[in-house]
Design brief:
This protein is mostly helical and about 120 residues long. Helix content is about 85%, strand content about 0%.
């Protein structure tokens, strides 16, 4: 009997039957894989960034300006943004319409040439 061949067969069968990854072994032992530093630092940086954003927003809202002045500024900024976006939408709509009309005229010209 060749023991080396028997052991190779057993290893091959066990290797295909059971998962032998590190996470599986640790899970079966009731342990957990050690987290890397980046697994801990990245979520902390995300929370820190969200805190900065919330703090900046609250700082703007509670600025030393009077409330009605700040609201007027915000209102004017939003109105300007709305006007600019409306202008852009109209411009894109106009260009799209021109392109569609140009494509239609080319199609009718080419169909007239074929006839």
């Amino acid at each position: 009997m060749d023991w080396k061949k028997v052991m190779n067969d057993v290893n091959r069968n066990v290797g295909t039957t059971y998962e032998t990854s590190m996470e599986t072994v640790l899970d079966r032992l009731g342990l957990e894989h050690r987290k890397s530093t980046m697994d801990v630092v990245l979520p902390m940086l995300g929370v820190f960034g969200a805190g900065i954003a919330v703090g900046a927003s609250l700082g703007l809202l509670f600025a030393p300006k009077r409330g009605n002045e700040l609201r007027d500024e915000l209102r004017h900024s939003l109105e300007d943004l709305r006007e600019r976006s409306t202008e852009k939408i109209n411009e894109v709509s106009r260009k799209t319409k021109e392109n569609a009309e140009g494509a239609l005229s080319q199609d009718t010209d080419s169909s007239a040439v074929r006839s």
